[in-house]
Amino acid sequence: GRDENAESEEVVHLSRLSRVAVCGGTHGNELSGVYLVRELQKTEKPLEEEDELVSVLVVLSNPRAVQQCRRYTETDLNRCFTHATLNGPESDKTPYEITRSRELNSLLGPKGSPEAVDLICDLHNTTANMGLCLIAYSDHDWICLHIFRYLQANIPVRYIHFDFPPKEAYSLESVGKHGFAIEIGPQPHGVVRSNIYTTMKAGVQHVMDWVRFFNSGTIFEGGSVEVYTMVKNIDYPRDSETHSITAAIHPQLQDQDFCLLHPNDPLFQTFSGETLRYKGKEPLYPFFINECAYYEKGIALSLARRKCVKMPPIQVKTELEHQENEWEFASEEDE
Amino acid sequence: MSSHNTVSFSEARRVAVFGGTHGNEMSGVTLVNLWVKNGAEIQRKGVETKPFITNPKAVEKCSRYVDTDLNRAFTPENLSAPGGDDLPYEVQRAQEINRLFGPKGSPEAYDVIFDLHNTTSNMGCTLILESSKDHFNLQMMNYIKKAIAPASCPVLLNEHPLLKYSTSRSVAKHPVGLEVGPQPQGVLRSNIFEAMRVILKHALDFIELFNEGMEFPPCTVDVFRVSERVDYPRDANGNIIAMVHPNLQDCDWEPLNPGDPMFQTFDGKTIHYEGAGTVYPTFINEAAYYEKQQAFVTTRRETLVASAIRKA
Description:
The structure holds two protein chains of two kinds.
Chain A: E1 12-14, E2 19-24, H1 31-42, H2 45-48, E3 55-60, H3 63-68, H4 83-86, H5 96-108, E4 119-125, E5 131-136, H6 142-154, E6 158-161, E7 178-185, H7 194-215, E8 223-234, E9 247-249, E10 266-270, E11 275-277, E12 285-287, E13 301-311, E14 314-316, H8 319-326
Parallel strand pairs in A: 1-14, 2-3, 2-4, 4-7, 5-6, 6-8
Antiparallel strand pairs in A: 5-7, 8-13, 9-10, 10-11, 12-13
Chain B: E1 7-9, E2 14-19, H1 26-37, E3 48-53, H2 56-61, H3 76-79, H4 89-101, E4 112-118, E5 124-129, H5 135-148, E6 155-157, E7 174-181, H6 190-211, E8 219-230, E9 242-244, E10 261-265, E11 270-272, E12 280-282, E13 296-306, E14 309-311
Parallel strand pairs in B: 1-14, 2-3, 2-4, 4-7, 5-6, 6-8
Antiparallel strand pairs in B: 5-7, 8-13, 9-10, 10-11, 12-13
Helix pairs in contact in B: 1-6, 5-6
């Protein structure tokens, strides 16, 4: 791919984001995204009307789960987007969500191909006290990072990086050429809180504003941002026979997402009142603390390292550059 | 007060603690499972306290219910319905629970049942009362409130002929609901868990004192009496078109005056409360009530008088 040296001041030119998808209801009980997608579909004109700059698809990802107000019906849709799952065999025993992931891959992908949409923005809620976060698989996708920096100037937001190669990236936003999840908490599943919905609506609006600025030729200055890279998960202590949890997140850790966790800080409180402490050697940043859906995945909290990432200035490619690029064998977005 | 105003009750010998009536309300599920393994904490002299998971299938699925809401299932029709295995799971459970802890309305029924619940609403530790004339329960609630003061413990009275519902605990002579929030469904928060544990401890202490012969003098109990259910604004297709307004969100038990913001549409407009007078809303934005057409319930403040009580 093209050399993208983040240290130099040379502007990096990236392709227009002609097609953007906003997805909600990937988990059917994460209601801010469900209601926002419904609202965007109702008032579709403001986003798509006479818009030469960008075309926007608004998608309800898991309608069956939305209808039942559950996270999923047979299997978690947001784990069904690895290359292996998308390209696996089809039978009448195939779970609904896998069939659906393949439909979404046709609609928004195919993942890894030139036909994939330019940007996917997937809307999620969490019961954890995380505020507004962007979650992405890359710490050097300049589109995602510049969007993040633009958002940061307008609302408090953090960037979480999951270090997975594209083939193994399992969530919906990995289908697009660029993508991230917008994750906002705390909100109970099955509930829409007006403050959370409003934040999500504003977040999506800022993303779309940025996309339009970018597509119309704005140069976004280089700079640096803080990124949280996921390191590991910690499970609840469990009963060896029944596998039930034997402790809850400690009251001093509950709701303290992104507050640095030091070795020996309290992690859990057993039901008999004993404190269990963090045994790691490295202070790390906790997040997804007490996310409801993660009990069954064996995650009580996740831990991240924080680092500074430098980004180059970027600007949309001109038509001429775009044409020249079409003749190259590898697109510069090749990961 | 002269003693002929004192109401006598037989000793409360048989007490049950229900958890998992809704399978995703985790404080009760966790506490009852703990006590089934080791019930020392809930035992009191002279009382047989039985911890019991009322809806095991829902607990296993971590869902509110399997076929139908167990906490609405204890109607006379359901309790006497023939059909056995063909009945919805929760109706079968209701009949079983009525057999074990009732029969509802009979002298053989359990004396007291505590039913442990969580809510996504910011209700704190709420005690739910089903009858304004249950002097035993009123005295218990007065005792609990004094024991945890200055922390507060609102009492919700649901005696409304139309809004009242047939709860699991209604099988007992003295049904007591414990509703603690806010906690998301499927999540266990240690502060919520501990708060519920403390309330129950005081409740059991009261029973022990009562059984030992302590006389409780007359008292008054401030309650919130259920008045009206308020649904979300909906469109012609029944879809919700507005959310609880940010000014009302989390303001359970605080006054809502005519003209105050109540809902906010998805495109940002405010809908105001247009009732006749001040009400005290609760169960504000409870997840399980979206499907029951309830955004919140209004209550009115009332002071009930409890007679002195002692054991017979």
